[in-house]
UniProtKB/TrEMBL annotation:
Intracellular or extracellular location(s): Membrane
Keyword Glycoprotein assigned: no
TM helices/strands, residue ranges: 26-44, 75-97, 109-135, 155-182, 194-212, 218-238
NCBIfam families for this protein: tatC
Gene from which this protein is expressed: tatC
Pfam families hit by this protein: TatC
InterPro entries: Sec-indep_translocase_CS, TatC
Record PROSITE patterns: TATC (PS01218)
GO biological process, one term: protein transport by the Tat complex
Entry's Gene Ontology cellular component terms: TAT protein transport complex
Protein known as: Sec-independent protein translocase component TatC
Family membership noted in the UniProt record: Belongs to the TatC family.
Tree of life domain: Eukaryota
Organism of provenance: Haraldiophyllum bonnemaisonii
Length: 240
C-alpha cells in the first residue's frame, strides 16, 4: 500500500507525486539561481565597485593572468546564491506547507522568514560597520612602513568571509527559538547563563572576524550579545 501525503486541499499525493513536486520545486529554485547569477555576472563591475567602496584609497592589483575574470565569476556565483536564497526558501515552504498543521505553520513559516531577514541584516551590519572598522585598522597599521596595495581576489575573499560569517551569526535568535519550541532550553535557562554567553561571544567574534583589531571584535561581540538577548525576549513573548 502506497504511503499517502495529505495536501491542504484534502487531495492525496503518492510518493511518486511527492517526489515529482520536489523535483519541480528544486528545478524552479535552480532556474532562478541561474537567472540571478547571470544578471549578477552582467553587472559584476557594479558589484565590484560596491565591494571596493569600504576600502577607500586602496589600489587593487591583478597579480595573475585572468585573476579578475575568475573573481568576477566568483562574485556572480556568490551573489546569485545570496540573492536567490529567499526564492529557494520560498519553494521549500511551498513544498512542506501541505504536510504541516496550522500550529506548525504558525511557528515554522515566521521562523523561516525571520531567518532570511536576519541573514541579510547581518550582511548589511557587516558591510556598514564591521568591514569599514576592520579595513581602517588594517590600512593604518604599518602604513608608515608599507604602502597598502592589495590583490583584489584576496580582498574579495576577506569581504566574503566577513559578510557570510556575520550573516550566519545573526541566526542566533532563530536557534534559540527552535531550542525553546522543542523545549530543550527555556528562556529562563538562557537568561541564567548570560555570563557564559558574554565570554563565548567574545571568543566567537575573535574567530569569525578575519582581522585582529579589537574594535571589530567588540562590535561583533556586542551584536551577538544583543541577538542573544533578543532571542530570550522573543521566547518570553511566546511563553517558552
Amino acid at each position: 500500500m502506497k504511503k499517502l501525503y495529505k495536501k491542504n486541499d484534502n487531495t492525496d499525493m503518492s510518493i511518486v507525486e511527492h517526489l515529482t513536486e520536489l523535483r519541480e520545486r528544486l528545478f524552479i529554485a535552480f532556474f532562478l539561481f541561474c537567472i540571478i547569477t547571470f544578471l549578477c555576472l552582467i553587472y559584476t563591475k557594479d558589484i565590484s565597485y560596491i565591494l571596493q567602496k569600504p576600502a577607500f584609497g586602496i589600489k587593487f592589483l591583478q597579480l595573475a593572468p585572468g585573476e579578475y575574470l575568475f573573481v568576477s565569476i566568483k562574485i556572480a556565483l556568490y551573489s546569485g546564491f545570496i540573492f536567490s536564497s529567499p526564492f529557494t526558501i520560498y519553494q521549500i515552504i511551498l513544498f512542506i506547507l501541505p504536510g504541516l498543521t496550522n500550529k506548525e505553520i504558525s511557528y515554522i513559516i515566521p521562523t523561516l522568514i525571520a531567518s532570511i531577514i536576519l541573514f541579510f541584516a547581518g550582511i548589511i551590519f557587516s558591510y556598514t560597520i564591521l568591514v569599514p572598522a576592520a579595513l581602517q585598522f588594517l590600512i593604518n597599521y604599518g602604513s608608515e612602513i608599507v604602502e597598502p596595495i592589495w590583490s583584489f581576489e584576496e580582498y574579495f575573499n576577506f569581504i566574503l568571509l566577513l559578510l557570510f560569517t556575520t550573516g550566519i551569526s545573526f541566526q542566533i535568535p532563530i536557534i534559540q527559538i527552535l531550542l525553546g519550541y522543542f523545549q530543550i532550553l527555556s528562556s529562563n535557562d538562557m537568561l541564567r547563563h548570560w555570563k557564559y554567553v558574554i565570554f563565548i561571544s567574545t571568543i566567537i567574534s575573535a574567530i569569525i572576524t578575519p582581522s585582529t583589531d579589537p574594535i571589530t571584535q567588540i562590535f561583533m561581540a556586542l551584536a551577538i550579545l544583543l541577538l542573544y538577548l533578543s532571542g530570550i525576549f522573543i521566547l518570553k513573548i511566546l511563553n517558552k
